[in-house]
From TrEMBL:
<keyword id="KW-1133">Transmembrane helix</keyword>
<feature type="transmembrane region" description="Helical">
    <location>
        <begin position="362"/>
        <end position="381"/>
    </location>
</feature>
<feature type="transmembrane region" description="Helical">
    <location>
        <begin position="299"/>
        <end position="323"/>
    </location>
</feature>
<feature type="transmembrane region" description="Helical">
    <location>
        <begin position="335"/>
        <end position="356"/>
    </location>
</feature>
<feature type="transmembrane region" description="Helical">
    <location>
        <begin position="6"/>
        <end position="26"/>
    </location>
</feature>
<keyword id="KW-0812">Transmembrane</keyword>
<dbReference type="InterPro" id="IPR038770">
    <property type="entry name" value="Na+/solute_symporter_sf"/>
</dbReference>
<dbReference type="InterPro" id="IPR006153">
    <property type="entry name" value="Cation/H_exchanger_TM"/>
</dbReference>
<keyword id="KW-1003">Cell membrane</keyword>
<dbReference type="GO" id="GO:0015297">
    <property type="term" value="F:antiporter activity"/>
</dbReference>
<feature type="transmembrane region" description="Helical">
    <location>
        <begin position="274"/>
        <end position="293"/>
    </location>
</feature>
<feature type="transmembrane region" description="Helical">
    <location>
        <begin position="89"/>
        <end position="114"/>
    </location>
</feature>
<dbReference type="Pfam" id="PF00999">
    <property type="entry name" value="Na_H_Exchanger"/>
</dbReference>
<keyword id="KW-0813">Transport</keyword>
<keyword id="KW-0050">Antiport</keyword>
<feature type="transmembrane region" description="Helical">
    <location>
        <begin position="33"/>
        <end position="52"/>
    </location>
</feature>
<feature type="transmembrane region" description="Helical">
    <location>
        <begin position="58"/>
        <end position="82"/>
    </location>
</feature>
């Protein structure tokens, strides 16, 4: 009995330490998941001596935690973001994972003298990304990147885990000879079709079932979030039991449920946010406890070399090949390449060779652990500088918004939203609240009054409005403080503004001649930009026209351009940067290295002659 209480005490102390470490991460910009890992390492065998070597239990706990994380990831991804980046993100989540695993696996064969299957297995283990740390660092770093880039990273991070898990399981079976097949290629294709097909076939109806049951059953509000998470785990486990990818199914179920009208959605979202934090803490602590740092020095140098190869070569090559057919600039491809942090999934998958009986299984686990540490240290601390270096940081469109959403009981297709009126917000300067919003109450200095009798709104008023659940973002601009004006904003958007309804011919007369195509002179700037950007332009999109650069300063909620900027002196990157280390770049680097060696030999020969 005392052992039970001691185990609970140690577990709760570790979770508390991990929770308190978030304060350090917010203050110093430390990768939070790195802190969770380090706490597990310090408490483990080579630290405070907590003995934990049950790989099967660690994989079980990690899988449950990952299912919770993936469901929340899907639940929090808007359908707009998914549609915006679905094609490139899913390409990277499938083909990109294959390319990363293949390129990295070949190098692993050379570095560790592995067989091809073993090298590909190690590549599959580290092929998926963990974007949870990335967006945490973007938030505390106070930077914002274009919506399409952010959406691509969100969707990729939520959908590439199933592919990496499938590859790892299949290669473990081949490496141990348990697949029972003389034609593993055909079996892999069949297994792939079954896993992904069942994942989609069960995940979508599973999401529908979650929404239907929550809306149909008159359940206690406090039980609803627990009911939803339990149903999500039911979808995950049922799909896995039938031979499908439970991770893909639970992500799709979350994506569907999060974009439908569902009762107690705000409560569900808040509960899942806490559950996701707990799942990440538990998963990283357990994986940290499972590791034995005293085994790391024997493979540290080759593992670090592989980590650098993954960051600088394998991931960029895969991203470049996957994103080439899509509308991404070189800077955006470079940033997406850099934002490829490896995390808990890689360490979790590294347990499979150990429990599956693959020869040298601990080599896979220890190598993956070191690669994750290097990735979090190298990329985790440099995401913000990299975004700034590549000029991808866009000025915020609006300032902070203080909004609270309160869901209404019953079946009313409205929700109650409360805004605090902040200083210099548009509603204080004469902007009117739209007619479709129904303001009902104003709380001023502790006194409540009907909106009709409140008069002109004042700073620190709390305004309660009944609106459709789809419209809160439309009111944010009215109640937000103005976006902070930075010194570089004018340089980013250009010194001049231009009406999007002006034609290219007018622009040519003002700044030309000859800067626009002759057959497009009657086309408006808005139409031309939308056509060039694939039918829809985004905030901060940029297009070069001769000596000019046209920048999208703002778009409305329908996606139509409302304001454009003109830069007469567009600045290029301070230093040319390649998409990845291509043949030309590698040859140039080798030539420089050879010249340095020749010069060094000549200097040594002169010294010897003297």
């Amino acid at each position: 009995m005392e052992t039970l209480y001691l185990a609970i005490l140690v577990g709760t102390l570790l979770v508390l330490m991990a929770a308190f470490s978030s304060l350090l991460a917010f203050r110093f910009g430390t990768p939070l998941l790195l802190l969770f890992l380090c706490i597990g390492l310090v408490a483990g065998t080579d630290g405070f001596g907590v003995q934990f070597d049950n790989g099967q239990l660690a994989y079980f706990v990690g899988s449950l935690a990952l299912a919770v994380i993936l469901f929340d990831s899907g639940f929090g991804t808007s359908l707009h973001a998914f549609r915006q980046a679905a094609a490139p993100a899913i390409t990277m989540a499938t083909l990109g994972v294959l390319l990363t695993a293949g390129i990295f696996g070949l190098m692993a064969c050379v570095v560790f003298d592995l067989q091809l299957i073993q090298g590909l297995l190690l590549g599959s283990i580290v092929a998926s990304t963990d974007a949870a740390a990335v967006f945490f660092l973007l938030r505390i770093g106070g930077i914002a990147v274009r919506d399409r880039v952010r959406s691509t990273l969100e969707v990729e991070s939520g959908s590439n885990d199933p592919m990496a898990i499938f590859l790892t399981i299949a290669l473990v079976q081949i490496a141990t000879g348990t697949d029972g097949s003389s034609l593993p290629g055909i079996d892999i294709l069949r297994l792939f079709g079954m896993q992904m097909g069942l994942g989609v076939a069960i995940g979508l109806p599973g999401g529908m079932l979650i929404v239907w049951l929550v809306n149909k059953l008159d359940m206690e509000r406090g039980l609803t979030p627990i009911f939803v998470v339990t149903l999500a785990l039911l979808v995950f486990s049922a799909t896995g039991a039938l031979g499908g990818s439970g991770f893909l199914a639970v992500y799709i179920a979350g994506l569907y449920a999060g974009n439908r009208s569902i009762r107690a959605k705000t409560a569900i979202r808040r509960f899942q946010e806490g559950m996701t934090w707990l799942a990440q803490i538990v998963m990283f602590l357990v994986l940290g406890l499972l590791a034995t740092p005293s085994q790391f020095p024997a493979i540290a140098l080759p593992a670090i070399a592989l980590a650098l190869f993954l960051v600088l070569v394998a991931r960029p090559v895969a991203v470049w090949l996957c994103l080439s057919p899509f509308r991404y600039t070189k800077r955006e491809r470079l940033f997406i390449s850099w934002v490829g942090l490896r995390g808990a999934v890689s360490i979790l998958l590294a347990i499979l060779p150990v429990i599956g009986g693959v020869e040298g299984g601990m080599l896979f686990f220890n190598t993956a652990f070191i690669i994750v540490l290097v990735s979090l240290l190298l990329q985790g601390w440099t995401i913000s500088p990299m975004a700034k270096r590549l000029s991808l940081v866009v000025p915020p469109r609006i300032g902070p918004v203080q909004r609270v959403e309160v869901e209404l009981p019953g079946s009313a297709n409205h929700e109650l939203v409360a805004y605090r009126v902040v200083k210099d917000s548009p509603v204080l300067t004469g902007e009117r609240i739209p007619r479709w919003a129904r303001p009902s109450l104003v709380v001023r200095n502790g006194r409540s009054m009907r909106y009709q009798y409140a008069g002109r709104l004042q700073e620190n008023d709390h305004v309660y409005l009944f609106i459709s659940p789809n419209f809160p973002r439309l009111l944010d601009r009215l109640f937000a403080s103005p976006a902070p004006v930075e010194k570089d904003d004018t340089e980013f958007f250009g010194a001049f503004t231009v009406d999007p309804k002006r034609t290219l011919g007018e622009l040519d007369e003002a700044y030309g001649p000859g800067i626009v195509p002759a057959n497009s002179r009657e086309t408006t700037l808005a139409e031309y930009l939308e056509r060039r950007f694939g039918g829809r332009a985004e905030y901060a999109d940029r297009l070069r026209l001769g000596p000019l650069e046209i920048i999208v300063r703002d778009v409305d909620d329908r996606g139509e351009i409302t304001s454009l900027g003109v830069s007469l002196e567009p600045e290029p990157l301070a230093r040319p940067l390649p998409d990845f280390i291509n043949r030309k770049t590698a040859r140039s680097a080798l030539d420089r290295l050879a010249r340095r060696r020749r010069n060094r030999r000549k200097a040594e020969d002169r010294q010897a002659a003297e």
